[in-house]
C-alpha cells in the first residue's frame, strides 16, 4: 500500500516536472518573441559587475524631451570644461546657438571674476553634488546671474567622467532681491529718520526740562524717558504693570485722583493734572505737571502718551508771589487806616494839651488828663507799628554792626523773656556791617524774642546769631530783593513750632495765635515791614515740636559805623511870630492852631496848598508855614514847600505827616524844610517851630 | 471561482518590472492597473520595480527584459513579458481563465 502510494507519487512528480518544463519553455519562447518583436524597452544583462540595463532605441525619449523642454539650463561637460551637450534653455539663456556652443570650452561664457569658482566646481571629484552662484556672459556681453548645480556622471564603467550641470537663471530672483533690498534700505532710512526725530524731540524735551512717557494700554507697559526718571527720582526699571509704575511715585492722597485722570483719558482723549510726588529717599513732596493725549485705533484707546515737568519751583514762586501780593494789599489797607488814625490821635492829643492849660492844678484832673494822654501815646505806638508794617515809617538807616547791637541789647532781652528761657548770643567774630535803622532792628529783635518766649511756656533756649549769606539772582528774586550779600540776624527758639497754615499767615497784621489781650498781632508785622523797608526780607523756618527760626536779611554794606546823634530833650519855649497852618482836616487844623496860639504864636489858616500860596502872597509878615503833607486839590504839602522855595526862599516850611519822609521823596533835604511826625505833642511842635522861626 | 468551486480565494503577489518612464513601461503600468482592478479586486499586492533604480532586483526572479510582470504567488511562478496589452494572455498567465 505504502509502496503503491510511493509509485503513484513518483509518477505524479514526473508529469508535473514535464509540465513545468513545458511551461518554462513556452515562457522562454514568449520572451524571445517579445524581444524579437520589439515589445520590450530594455533588456537586463547579468555580468561580473552586476545587472546592467540596456535601454532600447527611443525608449529614453521622454527623458530627452524632459531635458530639452525644461525651463532650466542643462549642460553636460567634459572634465576639461568642453561643452558636450546643452539644452535649448541654456542656449537661449546666453542667446547663442547650440551648434556654436557644443564642442567649445564653457569658460568662454563665464564672467572673468567667476572663472576660478567655476573651475573649482568642475574640479571636485568626490561624486557629490555641489552648487554655486555665478555670472555667465551672454552673446551680447550682458551678465546673466545663475545658479549652477553640478554632479559627476560616469556613463560607462571605464568611460570618462562627465559633469552634468543644471543652470538656473537668477535674473528675476536677483531683481526681486534687489527690489527687496531697496525696500529694506528705504525702511531702514525711514526708521533712522524717525529715530532722529525722536532723538531731537528728546533733546528738545530735555532742554525744556520735560520727561516723556508712553503707556501702552494693550500690553500695559510703559516707556519712560531719561528725564522722566530724573523728575521722579530713581524709578524701578521694567516689570510690574505699566499704569502701576506711573502711579507709584504719587503721594497717597493724590494717587486715586491720578488713576482716575488716566482712566478718564481713555474716554476724553486727554489727561492733564498737577499732583504731588515723593521721590524715593526724599521726605519732601514735589509737584509735577502731567499732560498727555490718548491714541485710538478703530475707536479703541491703545496708548496714552505725553510729557511731565517738575513744577515745584514754579509753585513755590507762585506761592511767594501770592503771599507778597496779599501782604502788599494788607499794607495798603493798614497804611491808609493808620493815616486816618493818626489824625484822630492828633485831635485827641492836641485837645488834651489844650485842656491841660485851662484846667487848674487839681490833682485829680491832672491824673485824668495823664491817663488820657497815655492812651493817646499807646495808640500812637500801635499806629507806629502799623506804619512799620506798611513800610511807611521813617527809617533812620545807617551802617550798623548788628552783632554789637545784639550784645548791648542782651540785658534787655533777658529781662523781656524771663528766667525760664536761656538767651544765647553768638556774636560773629567779624564785624559785618549792614544798612538798617538800629532802633527798628532792636524793636524787631524784641518782638521776635517775645514771640519766642510765648512759644516756650516751659522754658527753652533762645539763640541769637548772625551770618553772612550771598543770594544769587534766582534766590533774591524769590524774595523780591536784589542779588548780593546779606547780613542775617537769626532768632531761633526751641518752642512749640508752627504748622504750615499758621506759618503762611504769621506776618499778617492782627494775626495772632495768642489769647485775646495777650498780643496785638502786630509784632511780626513790624518785623516784616521793617525788613522789607530796609531793602531786605524776613524768612521763617518752623517745625512743630522742634522750634522756630526767624532770619532777618539786611543788605550788607562796607560803610563804617556812624555814631548816632542823640537828641536832647528841649524845654517848652514860648515863642512869637506869624505861623500859617495849612491842613485840610478841620479838626486837626483847629487843634493845631489852638496849640500854636497857646505857645504864643499868631496863627493864619488855609485849607489847601493853593489857598496857602495866595495867603503868603498877600501877607508878607508870615514867618513860618506849617503844612500837612497829604492834601486834596492836586497840590500836596511837598509841592507847596517846593513852590515856596522858589518864590519865598526865606520862608521856612514845617511839614507834618503820619507818613514817611522817604515815601514823598524827601531824601533830598530841602533847605529850611523839616518834617514833624504826627501825632506830635505840644513840646515837639514847640521845638520844631521855635527852631525854624529863629534859626541859630 | 475554479471549476470545482471549493478552492479558497487566493492572494496574488505580483511584481511589475519597468524601466523608468519608457513608453512600454508606462503602458504596462496602466494596463496592469486596469486588469487588477477588474479581476483581482481586493486580493492582490502589486509592486512596481524600476530596474534603473534597482537593477539587482531582476536577478532573483530572472527578469531579462522590461516590462515584465511576475506572478510570485500563487505558484507556479509565471513571467509575462511585454506591455500587457494582450489581456487574454495576461489573464491566462495569471490562471484566471478556465483551462481548455
Report on this model:
- The complex is a heterodimer of chains A (696) and B (100).
- Chain A has 20 helices and 24 strands.
- With 696 residues, chain A is of the alpha+beta class.
- In chain A, a hairpin with a 6-residue loop joins strand 1 (42-45) and strand 2.
- In chain A, helix 12 (402-417) packs parallel to helix 13.
- Chain A is rod-shaped, with a radius of gyration of 57 Å.
- The N and C termini of chain A lie far apart (192 Å).
- With 100 residues, chain B is α+β, with helices and mostly antiparallel strands.
- Chain B contains three helices and five strands.
- Chain B has a four-stranded mixed sheet, covered by helices on one side.
- In chain B, strand 4 (68-73) and strand 5 form a beta hairpin.
- The longest helix of chain B is centred in the first third of the chain and has 17 residues, at 23-39.
- Chain B is globular, with a radius of gyration of 14 Å.
- Chain A binds chain B through residues 20, 23, 27, 30-31, 34-35, 39-46, 50-53, 55, 58-63, and chain B through 18-25, 51-52, 55-56, 58-59, 63-68, 76, 78-83.
- Strand 1 of chain A pairs antiparallel with strand 3 of chain B, so a sheet runs across the interface.
Amino acid at each position: 500500500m505504502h509502496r503503491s502510494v510511493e509509485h503513484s507519487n513518483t509518477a505524479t512528480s514526473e508529469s508535473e516536472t514535464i509540465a513545468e518544463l513545458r511551461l518554462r519553455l513556452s515562457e522562454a519562447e514568449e520572451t524571445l518573441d517579445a524581444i524579437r518583436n520589439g515589445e520590450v524597452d530594455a533588456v537586463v544583462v547579468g555580468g561580473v559587475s552586476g545587472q546592467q540595463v540596456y535601454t532600447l532605441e527611443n525608449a529614453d525619449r521622454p527623458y530627452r524631451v524632459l531635458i530639452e523642454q525644461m525651463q532650466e539650463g542643462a549642460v553636460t561637460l567634459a572634465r576639461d570644461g568642453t561643452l558636450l551637450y546643452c539644452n535649448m534653455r541654456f542656449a537661449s539663456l546666453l542667446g547663442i546657438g547650440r551648434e556654436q556652443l557644443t564642442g567649445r570650452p564653457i569658460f568662454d561664457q563665464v564672467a572673468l571674476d567667476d572663472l576660478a569658482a567655476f573651475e573649482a566646481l568642475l574640479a571636485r571629484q568626490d561624486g557629490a553634488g555641489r552648487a554655486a552662484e555665478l555670472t555667465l556672459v551672454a552673446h551680447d556681453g550682458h551678465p546673466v546671474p545663475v545658479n549652477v548645480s553640478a554632479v559627476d556622471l560616469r556613463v560607462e564603467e571605464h568611460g570618462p567622467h562627465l559633469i552634468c550641470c543644471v543652470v538656473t537663471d537668477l535674473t528675476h530672483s536677483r531683481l526681486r532681491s534687489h527690489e527687496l533690498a531697496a525696500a529694506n534700505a528705504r525702511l531702514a532710512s525711514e526708521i533712522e529718520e524717525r529715530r532722529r526725530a525722536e532723538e531731537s524731540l528728546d533733546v528738545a524735551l530735555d532742554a525744556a526740562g520735560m520727561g516723556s512717557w508712553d503707556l501702552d494700554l494693550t500690553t500695559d507697559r510703559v516707556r519712560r524717558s531719561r528725564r522722566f526718571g530724573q523728575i521722579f527720582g530713581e524709578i524701578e526699571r521694567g516689570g510690574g504693570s505699566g499704569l502701576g509704575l506711573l502711579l507709584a511715585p504719587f503721594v497717597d492722597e493724590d494717587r486715586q485722583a491720578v488713576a482716575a485722570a488716566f482712566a478718564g483719558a481713555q474716554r476724553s482723549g486727554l489727561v492733564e493734572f498737577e499732583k504731588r510726588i515723593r521721590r524715593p529717599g526724599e521726605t519732601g513732596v514735589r509737584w509735577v505737571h502731567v499732560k498727555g493725549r490718548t491714541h485710538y485705533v478703530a475707536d479703541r484707546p491703545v496708548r496714552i502718551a505725553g510729557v511731565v515737568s517738575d513744577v515745584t519751583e514754579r509753585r513755590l514762586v507762585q506761592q511767594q508771589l501770592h503771599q507778597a501780593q496779599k501782604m502788599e494789599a494788607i499794607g495798603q489797607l493798614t497804611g491808609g487806616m493808620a493815616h486816618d488814625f493818626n489824625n484822630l490821635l492828633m485831635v485827641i492829643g492836641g485837645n488834651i494839651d489844650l485842656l491841660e492849660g485851662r484846667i487848674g492844678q487839681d490833682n485829680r484832673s491832672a491824673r485824668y488828663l495823664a491817663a488820657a494822654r497815655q492812651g493817646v501815646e499807646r495808640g500812637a505806638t500801635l499806629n507806629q507799628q502799623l506804619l512799620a508794617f506798611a513800610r511807611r515809617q521813617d527809617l533812620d538807616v545807617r551802617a550798623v554792626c548788628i552783632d554789637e547791637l545784639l550784645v548791648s541789647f542782651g540785658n534787655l532781652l533777658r529781662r523781656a523773656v524771663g528766667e525760664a528761657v536761656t538767651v544765647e548770643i553768638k556774636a560773629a567774630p567779624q564785624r559785618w556791617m549792614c544798612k538798617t535803622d538800629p532802633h527798628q532792628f532792636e524793636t524787631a529783635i524784641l518782638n521776635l524774642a517775645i514771640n519766642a518766649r510765648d512759644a516756650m511756656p516751659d522754658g527753652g533756649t533762645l539763640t541769637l546769631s548772625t551770618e553772612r549769606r550771598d543770594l544769587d539772582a534766582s534766590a533774591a528774586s524769590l524774595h523780591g530783593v536784589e542779588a548780593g550779600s546779606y547780613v542775617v540776624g537769626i532768632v531761633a527758639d526751641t518752642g512749640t513750632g508752627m504748622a504750615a497754615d499758621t506759618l503762611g499767615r504769621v506776618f499778617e497784621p492782627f494775626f495772632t495765635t495768642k489769647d485775646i489781650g495777650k498780643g496785638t498781632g502786630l509784632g511780626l508785622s513790624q518785623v516784616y515791614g521793617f525788613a522789607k523797608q530796609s531793602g531786605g526780607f524776613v524768612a521763617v523756618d518752623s517745625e512743630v515740636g522742634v522750634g522756630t527760626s526767624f532770619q532777618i536779611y539786611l543788605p550788607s554794606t562796607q560803610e563804617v559805623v556812624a555814631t548816632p546823634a542823640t537828641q536832647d530833650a528841649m524845654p517848652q519855649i514860648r515863642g512869637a511870630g506869624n505861623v500859617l497852618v495849612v491842613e485840610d482836616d478841620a479838626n486837626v487844623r483847629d487843634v493845631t492852631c489852638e496849640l500854636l496860639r497857646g505857645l504864643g504864636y499868631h496863627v493864619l489858616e488855609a485849607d489847601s496848598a493853593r489857598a496857602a500860596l495866595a495867603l503868603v502872597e498877600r501877607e508878607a509878615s508870615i514867618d513860618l508855614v506849617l503844612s500837612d503833607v497829604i492834601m486834596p486839590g492836586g497840590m500836596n504839602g511837598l509841592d507847596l514847600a517846593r513852590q515856596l522855595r522858589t518864590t519865598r526862599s526865606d520862608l521856612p516850611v514845617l511839614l507834618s505827616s503820619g507818613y514817611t519822609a522817604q515815601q514823598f521823596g524827601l531824601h533830598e533835604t530841602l533847605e529850611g524844610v523839616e518834617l514833624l511826625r504826627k501825632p506830635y505833642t505840644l513840646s515837639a511842635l514847640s521845638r520844631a517851630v521855635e527852631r525854624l522861626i529863629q534859626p541859630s | 471561482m475554479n471549476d470545482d468551486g471549493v478552492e479558497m480565494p487566493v492572494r496574488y503577489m505580483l511584481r511589475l518590472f519597468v524601466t523608468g518612464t519608457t513608453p512600454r513601461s508606462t503602458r504596462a503600468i496602466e494596463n496592469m492597473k486596469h486588469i487588477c482592478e477588474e479581476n483581482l479586486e481586493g486580493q492582490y499586492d502589486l509592486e512596481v520595480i524600476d530596474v534603473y533604480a534597482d537593477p539587482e532586483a531582476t536577478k532573483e526572479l530572472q527578469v531579462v527584459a522590461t516590462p515584465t510582470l511576475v506572478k510570485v504567488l500563487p505558484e507556479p511562478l509565471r513571467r509575462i513579458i511585454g506591455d500587457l496589452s494582450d489581456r487574454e494572455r495576461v489573464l491566462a498567465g495569471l490562471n484566471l481563465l478556465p483551462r481548455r
